[in-house]
Specification:
The structure holds 2 protein chains of 2 kinds.
Chain A (H helix, E strand, L loop, with lengths): L24 H6 L14 E7 L5 E7 L1 H4 L4 E5 L9 E2 L6 E2 L5 E2 L5 E7 L2 H9 L2 E6 L6 H4 L13 E9 L9 E9 L11 E6 L5 E5 L4 H12 L6 E5 L15 H11 L3 E4 L2 H7 L6 E9 L5 E13 L5 H10 L9 E10 L13 H19 L3 H7 L20 H10 L26 E14 L8 E11 L2 E7 L9 H13 L4 E3 L17 H24 L6 H8 L4 E8 L18 E14 L4 E12 L6 H20 L5 E2 L2 E2 L18 E6 L16 H18 L5 E2 L13
Parallel strand pairs in A: 1-14, 10-28, 12-13, 16-17, 20-21, 24-27
Antiparallel strand pairs in A: 1-7, 2-6, 2-8, 3-7, 4-5, 9-17, 10-15, 11-12, 11-14, 15-16, 18-23, 19-20, 19-22, 23-24, 25-26
Helix pairs in contact in A: 5-6, 8-9, 9-10, 9-16, 10-11, 12-13, 15-16
Chain B lengths: L2 E5 L2 E5 L8 H8 L18 E4 L2 E4 L12 E3 L8 H9 L8 H14 L5 H7 L11 H12 L1
Parallel strand pairs in B: 1-5
Antiparallel strand pairs in B: 1-2, 3-4, 3-5
Helix pairs in contact in B: 2-5
The chains are: A alpha+beta, B alpha+beta.
Chain lengths: ~750, ~150
């Protein structure tokens, strides 16, 4: 091993393109990995949150007396105890740390309690008397758009409108026209590790917070503002993260735990249960989508006119960016000369919605892919063929006018899923039939269908956002051996980022011993573990920092090092440490009237073929097999790439067939894993994955973001398969059994 | 109350246990064994799977007092197991929150059925939710462990 001369090109063990063991893996399989909910400190107190039972109400008063009398209670706090800014938010600062004057959604935090046992804290919270004047909630996003509607916030209910105009959409006509209205229910990220963390008061008047999050520095900025502290007085360390999927972009318990810790002078742990977790984070936006597609008789799209209405719920979160994604990606990976798109996101008194894997592209994909199937049927064409005839390719323009650079293998991905070997025939094991172990059929009433879909996703942050990652790499001798320490604030949320950082350092430095430091705020921001961006961004930053270290080493030696002995000799004069801030190419804002602009850095594509069996008597679906083809540019860690594709596909299956937070008059009816169903191992079919590696000339190693694309198109592919099996129109996800039963009109 | 039970082969005593506490709470917060996880605390997700007198249970559904005088084995007590190695090499671990429960559940499955078929694996693990992997590599891990 050990040479820093990359011309030697000896593949270093565990470098880029390999699948070395995760550095956290041994701890995880042994149960020794410290998740945020496992944090513990001597003298620690437990925090809990009192939440509003009403989706909309005025707060006339809060009486804490009875809560304070409970033995074992150390603090009971309300908005009056928030020393700094009383509001926070990722993009728009509109969400109270603790409600004052008014509550705007069911589950909004109103007061917090610290006690010596979690049950004591909960009992005390139940004794807080809040005097509410209950108001009628505004829960219909379409009606909330009306300027005459009562307002959730003073600025009006339309949080953002993104228009996009390309060509002559108002006057374009076509020989074949298909139109449809589609709906997407509210999906939950349903990570398994609930919101949790430990706040420890510090002697400098600040606080140390150990927490599961997606972006340490955006948390730090918001927490410090709410506490009235300088950012450097609020030091965050990433605790073990039990999944994220967008749900940890916004603050949950961060400010609350810090407030309680600073008030009591004791460490305070907060840990949501599953029910509270459903109230403790934002969800995927429910959407209504109206599309009209016009095409020639030979299946070439002439125009798309579309309107998308996203229900943003009570607070802004990342809704404005979600809306832009829905709009800019809203006609899919197709070349369309005339486009009129209007996407809206609207405040209501429903639960706040924000980031979830796919981020606006999911809702749009269900609609545009349903439309492509409808168009295929109207033309008498094969559904894959109509897609291929309109497939976006390199050099084509998006509706925003942005030219698609680099590989855009839309037609090839479709061909690959179509040409994959056929799925297995129907077996006789009831566990592999609809209804499964419930033994509801032995094959009678069961019909099979096959469906296809393809989606498009942007990678990294868009619309001119200054998107960067900081990486610090230190190369030194440890026990006489060259060792690299990689330090970033990038959040490992399960995806394997810690593995990838080490792989890149090994490849760039030509050494095997690499340690990835715990992510914290003592190094600069790494941006969020979202937008499929971390291998691109933090990977890019680690690569750049390693290159700087290598250059430093060469300066010290006065030449290119030749073998390990040279490296050891050079490091004898002391460690080499370099810190870099690394950025992707700049993007531009969208024109507010025409929606034109080079808003995105990179596009990513995945296609799915789904095969389903449907019991048409009971309306039960069993997905038999899913095939995914995805271009990842470069599989930096092939095993992790497959893991992302499998997991993303599973979340898309959930949205197609079972996952919905049911909200009635602003009240969540199913905040538990008993009533909110996510796919089990019995629900998931075998998945065949076909990974393409067509390098993007602009990205590190040519890689393309991987995490989100597979979630986007699996939903419409499964729905298309169920349509093919049943002939039902199926314009809403998740599909319910009553939508499928023959003879029932729905 | 005082709770005495055998955990991972050692007699353990927990004092001042509130009778409403679950075995999961006692393991995690009083006995320093946080391996069993708390993802739903109503027996739906299997993240807190442990053995109680040799039977696979969700520790969140066992009242602390029910463990009095009994034998508990947690994920920390099955360390070095072939199942754990298989999960690592198959890539069945992402965030890892479901992993300890799955390791115990697969350990139990293979003890009962050393060569399970895929449908048998799926049926046996239907009570263990995973949100990251789509289960494909978990199946790979179980097949690998069963072949080893």
């Amino acid at each position: 091993m050990t040479t820093v001369d990359r011309r030697v090109d000896a593949p270093v063990t565990g470098g880029v393109g390999g699948s070395p063991a995760r550095p956290d893996g041994v701890h995880k399989v042994r149960g020794e990995f410290a998740f945020s909910s496992d944090m513990w400190a001597a003298d620690m107190l437990w925090g809990t949150t009192l939440r509003s039972p009403h989706p909309r109400a005025r707060i006339r008063g809060i009486d804490l007396t009875k809560a304070l009398l409970v033995p074992g209670v150390y603090a009971v706090l309300t908005h009056e105890d928030v020393p700094g800014v009383k509001l926070y938010g990722l993009e728009i600062v509109d969400q109270p740390v603790l409600a004052f004057d008014e509550v705007r959604y069911e589950g909004e935090p109103v007061a917090i309690v610290a006690a010596d046992h979690p049950e004591t804290a909960r009992r005390a919270a139940a004794r807080i008397a809040v005097d509410y004047e209950v108001l009628p909630p505004i829960v219909d996003a379409e009606r909330a758009r009306d300027p005459e509607s009562p307002r959730i916030h003073p600025g009006g209910n339309v949080l953002r409108h993104v228009p996009i105009r390309r060509g002559e959409p108002d006057t374009a006509t076509a020989e074949v026209v298909v139109a449809g209205e589609y709906r997407v229910g509210m999906q939950d990220q349903a990570f398994l590790g609930p919101e949790s963390g430990l706040a420890v008061p510090a002697e400098d008047g600040g606080v140390d917070l150990f927490v599961a999050t997606q972006w340490l520095h955006v948390d730090q900025k918001q927490v410090a503002a709410c506490l009235g502290l300088r950012p450097e007085q609020v030091r965050l360390t990433l605790a073990g993260v039990g999944g994220a999927f967008g749900a940890r972009e916004d603050l949950s318990m961060q400010v609350h735990a810090c407030l309680l810790a600073m008030h009591t002078g004791r460490p305070v742990k907060m840990m949501y249960g599953r029910e509270e977790s459903f109230y403790g984070h934002v969800h995927r936006h429910p959407a209504t989508l109206r599309y009209e597609h016009g095409a020639t008789r030979d299946g070439r799209l002439v125009y798309v006119r579309a309107e998308i209405v996203l229900d943003g719920g009570a607070y802004a979160s990342s809704s404005t960016a979600v809306c832009a994604n829905a709009a800019t990606l809203g006609i899919g990976p197709y070349d369309v000369p005339n486009v009129a798109m209007d996407a809206y996101v609207v405040y209501t008194n429903n639960p706040p919605c924000g980031a979830m894997r796919g981020f606006g592209a999911v809702q749009a994909c269900f609609a545009y892919e349903s439309q492509m199937d409808k168009l295929a049927a109207a033309l008498g064409l094969d559904p894959v063929e109509v897609r291929v005839r309109n497939a976006l390719s390199t050099g084509d323009r998006m509706p925003t006018g942005q030219v698609v650079e680099g590989p855009a293998p839309v037609a090839e991905l479709l061909a690959r899923v179509r040409n994959a070997p056929p799925p297995p025939g129907r077996g006789s094991d009831i566990r592999e039939l609809p209804g499964g172990v419930s033994n509801t059929t032995h094959g009678e009433g069961v019909v099979r269908g096959v469906g296809y879909a393809i989606g498009i996703k942007n990678v990294c942050f868009s619309e001119g956002f200054d998107d960067y990652t900081t990486a610090r790499v230190r190369l030194e001798l440890v026990g006489g051996e060259p060792t690299a320490l990689v330090h970033t604030a990038a959040c490992e949320v399960g995806q394997g980022l810690v593995t990838v950082q080490a792989q890149i350092a090994r490849t760039e430095l030509g050494i095997e011993r690499v340690v990835v430091a715990t992510a914290d705020t003592s190094v600069g921001s790494a941006g969020s573990s979202s937008a499929s961006r971390q291998t691109y961004m933090t990977g890019g930053a680690v690569k750049a920092a390693c290159e700087a270290v290598r250059a430093h080493l060469e300066r010290r030696l006065g030449r290119t090092p030749d073998g390990e002995a040279d490296v050891v000799a050079a490091l004898g004069d002391g460690a080499i440490e370099e810190t870099v801030e690394w950025r992707h190419r700049p993007t531009s804002p969208l024109d507010p009237v025409t929606g034109q602009g080079d808003a995105h850095v990179q596009y990513a594509f995945a296609a799915h073929r789904a095969t389903v069996d449907v019991d048409t008597e009971l309306g039960l679906v069993r997905v038999v097999e899913i095939v995914t083809a995805q271009d990842v540019g470069k599989a930096v860690n092939p095993q992790a790439v497959e893991g992302q594709i499998h997991g993303g596909t599973a979340q898309g299956l959930g949205l197609a067939l079972m996952e919905e937070i049911q909200v009635v008059d602003g009240v969540v009816r199913n905040p538990s894993f008993t009533d909110y169903l996510i796919p089990t191992i019995l629900d998931m079919p075998p998945m065949r994955v076909d990974v393409l590696e067509l390098a993007d000339p602009h990205s590190p190693y040519g890689l393309r973001g991987v995490g989100e694309p597979p979630t986007i198109s699996s939903t419409p592919a499964i729905v298309a398969a169920v349509r093919a099996a049943t002939g039902k129109p199926l314009t809403r996800v998740p599909i319910r059994p009553e939508h499928l039963i023959q003879g029932l009109r729905t | 109350m005082r709770l005495t039970c055998t955990v991972n082969g050692e007699e353990r005593i927990a004092d001042d246990v509130w009778p409403g506490e679950s075995l999961l709470y006692v393991l995690r917060e009083r006995l320093g064994l946080p391996g069993a996880k708390n993802a739903c605390e109503q027996g739906e997700c299997g993240s807190c799977s442990v053995y109680l007198d040799g039977s696979l249970v969700c520790a969140c559904l066992v009242a602390a007092g029910q463990a009095e005088g009994r034998t508990v084995v947690t994920v920390e007590g099955v360390a070095g197991d072939v199942v754990q190695r298989a999960f690592l090499s198959a890539g069945a671990v992402q965030c890892g929150f479901c992993t300890p429960g799955l390791v115990v559940a697969v350990h139990d499955l293979l003890a009962r059925n050393p060569r399970p078929t895929d449908p048998q694996i799926r049926e046996a693990l239907a009570g263990n939710l995973c949100r990251c992997t789509g289960y494909e590599k978990i199946l790979d891990a179980v097949r690998l462990a069963a072949s080893g």
